[in-house]
Amino acid sequence: MNRSRNLILGISLALAAAAIPSWINAEQSRGQQGGANPFPGGTNPDGSLRPTPPVSRFFSQDAYTEYAILDPGSEQFRIRFLPALSAGSRKLYSNRTCGQPVFAGSFIRKRRIVLDLELARNPNELTRILTHELFHFAWVRLSNQTRRSYEDLLSREWKQRARGELGWSAESRKVRLAPHSRPARDADWRDYVCESFCDTAAWLYSGIRQHAEFTLAVRHRTRRAEWFHTAFHDRKIPI
Question: Which of 32, 41, 57, 79 shows its CA 20 to 30 Å from the CA of 109?
């Protein structure tokens, strides 16, 4: 089926992550057996984790675990797992009390993704979150016309007072928008559009059919699925 073949990139990369938990367990066991401490902040004598500074040296080699996944164009993704992620002031933290808890963060220019280590214990959620993050890379490679087309779709939903979303990342931004009859095309609106695109892609392509964060009405889900089919049915999704 053409649609399935053209969507293989988004699905295969997400499913590839499902094999990661066993690899992480092996790394944890090796560290406990006397190897180098894998945690960036180190551990206390009682085994608890020490806080780490902001991930300002993200591209160094001090990560807990890192994987490389090659896309069909041979451009490399670096996927890194760190414990207890949080974000604030446009910085990503691990094992810190500052910021808001998050499951992931992407570094578009360097083609790198950071995932919370907790996701390794939940393959379904890992697949959903990773699919969302991968589509951040797709979003920036879309043409202005395609991005504006998706924005127009959301504008129509807004005029229809559509409630809910297909992920908390988008919904949390949607509820913060000023309740105007027509949304202003400001930074908050553009941020919402991007997150909605990624959450919708995760709903559509991750294989997860039911989730507490899928709160958008069925008629709007159907229109979004039709938009994705129209936008990508005859070509691979660029990431």
Answer: 41
Of 107, 133, 124, residue with least CA distance to 15: 124
Residue 227 has pLDDT above 60, yes or no: yes
HSE at residue 38, side-chain half, CA atoms within 13 A, is: 20
137 in a domain, yes or no? no
List Cβ neighbours of 216 (8 Å cut-off, separation of 6 or more): 162, 163, 164, 165, 166, 224
Instruction: Indicate whether 58 belongs to any domain.
Output: yes
- In DSSP terms, which residues pair with 104 in a beta bridge? 115
**Collapsing DSSP states into helix, strand and coil, what is residue 65?**
strand
- pLDDT in the model for residue 48: 53
Backbone φ and ψ for 140, nearest 5 degrees, come out as -75, -15
Angle, helix 20-32 to helix 123-141, in steps of 10 degrees: 110
Average pLDDT over residues 6-24: 40
The CA distance from 196 to 170, in Å, is: 5
Question: Do β-strands 76-82 and 65-70 pair in parallel, antiparallel, or remain unpaired?
Answer: antiparallel
Q: Would residue 97 count as lying in a domain?
A: yes
Q: What's the structural domain count of the chain?
A: 1
Q: How confident is the model at residue 77 (pLDDT cuts 50, 70, 90)?
A: confident
- Kindly list the strands in the beta sheet with 104-107, ordered across the sheet, starting from the edge strand earlier in the chain: 65-70, 76-82, 112-116, 104-107
Residue 228 belongs to some domain of the structure? no
**Mean pLDDT over the full length of the chain:** 75
Cα 20 to Cα 4: distance, rounded to the nearest angstrom: 24
